[in-house]
Write a structure and sequence with these properties.
Length: about 150
């Protein structure tokens, strides 16, 4: 095995590079930090959190999404039951289109269950208060009740 020796990179004071590659190490660090800063500050970045039935759920500023390897009817039925368990009143229940609308407290909740593949469905929980602003606490509560029923 050949030893790797760090040598100065020509034209850049204080930089070092690996003899096996022409990649200057100090140049990559700012690039990685720049990409990270752009993703974090963009406002539309999703954060993968926890572990769900199919690998984790995505939380954005106004909704929670997850995919499940379960039949659409099964996820839909348990979603309706979970909304009622959370103290909600179901106003629209459309199994053909996979849409559930409900009111939990003073928050309007919309759940959509759509097929991704023959075996996988996506569940999306969105909650908005009377000012049409996202209410992530209610969305999280409903989602957790659905998840508990599906496991």
């Amino acid at each position: 095995m050949q030893a790797v020796q760090a040598v100065p990179f020509p034209g850049v004071p204080g930089s070092r590079r690996n003899k096996r590659s022409n990649l200057a190490l100090p140049e990559t660090v700012p690039l990685v930090l720049l990409v990270f800063a752009c993703v974090v500050s963009s406002g539309c970045a999703l954060f993968l959190v926890g572990a769900g039935a199919a690998g984790g759920y995505a939380v954005s500023k106004d909704s929670i999404k997850n995919s499940f390897d379960l039949p659409k009817k099964h996820v839909f039925r348990h979603s309706v039951a979970a909304v009622k368990e959370a103290g909600g009143r179901v106003t629209i229940e459309d199994p053909a289109n996979g849409v559930i609308r409900a009111v939990v407290g003073e928050t309007n909740v919309t759940l959509t269950v759509k097929s991704l593949t023959r075996k996988t469905v996506e569940l999306k929980v969105k909650a908005r208060n009377k000012f049409l602003l996202p209410d992530m606490e209610v969305a999280q509560e409903v989602y957790n009740k659905i998840l508990a029923r599906l496991q």
